[in-house]
Design goal:
With 445 residues, the protein is of the alpha+beta class. Helix content is 53%, strand content 7%.
Length: 445
């Protein structure tokens, strides 16, 4: 190699070496130096809690004085420690944004209060899923359908359903009640232009209330303390909701198949569910001895009669929150409706208690004397509520269980308790009837 070529080769090597050093420097130095400390990564930010107010109405007729609880932690259980408000005179409730510390919307529950369209105390606990603005017997069916699609709730464990699940349950329940196209969790049954909604709402609540009261009486024997009776009643009411949901899901309501036709299935299903409800069995172990079919035989006809009365009542009567006070005709109609419902309830209480005292009735078949007893007592109470005790004692005296010749009324505490309840209810009904008659005499049409 000549000197010129050798010099060029040397220069080329030096150029390559300089490029490598430059590259190493750009990458942070050689192997001998420490690696640079990477810049810290910012922690991901959580979306802010959006506190929103939640409001709505409790509706059978409007329910005033009810306690509404917001399921703040979304565990699908309305707990004693969660926010509560009381409904106003038209069933309205509102939780402030400040009370909604977890943000979003939540399930709500309602208990107690008075149905201002009938003046009667509200029975049971109603529920409505997140996003609802109406809290009714029908939203309770929707919430029960939602619950059925999820694992059992655990206190303190969040298990809120998706919006899609709520929408699906709402649609299915509406379809099964022959209310297709109605959004059950937002529609107000009282102000709706569709009379079928308030008729169905009132009919479902009547079925729930009458079934609950009668099954609770059968479970406790009519002799439980008020605290035990309330505990059992609240639990049985939820079982009744589950039974109504199951019944209309299996056999949807149609114009030719009204809700009242499902009374036997609902009552029997409620007894079956109560027998496995730990709250009920702990308070009243005798529930395990009840025959669902026998209890349904005694109770279902009266429940069906009451449901039929409500379902056929006019929208004006069912929604008469102001009409009852200002319109004598509406007042009289509302009182008559309440009279028929309560008479049915009294006869159910009585016959259930007597049946519990004498198992012979359970095998009497279609000629069971309790069937006649229930019908006669209901008729007498409806036409002459002021003479309830005489009517009841008269019918019991005429009713002789087959193969025994005697009916243990005087010695049986449950029957006596039922008679006392019937007398108290009859006195209230007599006062309602008198008030309606007085309003009709003084107020015109």
């Amino acid at each position: 190699m000549d000197k010129r070529s050798a010099k060029l080769a040397t220069l080329l090597k030096l150029s390559i070496a300089a490029g490598m050093v430059s590259t190493l420097a750009a990458c942070g130095g050689s192997d001998d130096g420490p690696a640079p400390t990477p810049a810290p990564t910012a922690a991901p930010t959580q979306p802010p809690v959006v506190a929103v107010a939640i409001s709505g109405k409790v509706v059978d007729g409007y329910v005033s004085g009810a306690t509404v609880t917001m399921d703040l932690n979304d565990d699908r259980i309305c707990s004693a420690t969660e926010p509560k408000v009381t409904t106003n005179s038209l069933g309205g409730y509102s939780f402030s944004a400040a009370a909604n510390t977890t943000g979003g919307t939540h399930m709500v529950c309602s208990s107690g209060g008075v149905d201002i369209s009938s003046g009667t105390a509200f029975v049971g606990e109603l529920k409505a899923p997140a996003g609802a603005t109406s809290l009714t017997p029908l939203t309770s069916l929707v919430q029960a359908a939602v619950d059925a699609s999820l694992p059992a709730p655990v206190v303190g464990t969040k298990s809120a359903p998706t919006a899609a699940a709520i929408t699906s349950a709402t649609t299915n329940v509406a379809n099964n009640l022959n209310l297709t196209g109605i959004n059950l969790i937002t529609a107000d049954p009282v102000t709706t232009s569709n009379p079928a909604l308030i008729q169905t709402t009132a009919a479902v609540q009547t079925m729930l209330a009458k079934t609950t009261t009668a099954v609770t009486g059968a479970v406790t024997g009519g002799t439980a303390t008020t605290a035990v009776n309330n505990t059992v009643s609240n639990a049985v009411f939820q079982n009744a909701i589950q039974s109504v949901l199951a019944a209309v899901t299996a056999t949807p309501v149609t114009p030719s198949l009204p809700l009242s036709n499902l009374s036997h299935v609902v009552v029997g299903g409620t007894v079956t569910r109560a027998a496995t409800n730990t709250t009920v069995t702990a308070a009243a172990p005798t529930v395990a001895t009840l025959s669902p079919s026998s209890v349904a035989q005694f109770i279902a006809p009266s429940v069906a009669s009451s449901v039929t009365s409500v379902a056929s009542a006019s929208q004006a009567v069912l929604a008469s929150s102001t009409a009852s006070a200002n319109n004598p005709a509406a007042a009289a109609a509302a009182s008559s409706l309440t009279l028929a419902q309560s008479a049915g309830l009294v006869s159910s209480l009585l016959t259930t208690a007597v049946a519990a005292a004498n198992p012979t009735f359970a095998t009497a078949g279609a000629t069971n004397p309790l069937t006649t007893l229930a019908a006669t007592v209901q008729s007498n109470l409806t036409t002459n509520p002021s003479n309830a005790v005489t009517a009841i004692n008269s019918q019991i005296a005429k009713t002789v269980p087959p193969n025994t010749g005697t009916l243990p009324t005087v010695s049986n505490a449950a029957a006596e308790a039922a008679k006392a309840a019937a007398a108290a209810e009859a006195a209230r009904l007599a006062a309602l009837a008198a008030a309606a008659a007085a309003a009709g005499a003084t107020g015109g049409t």
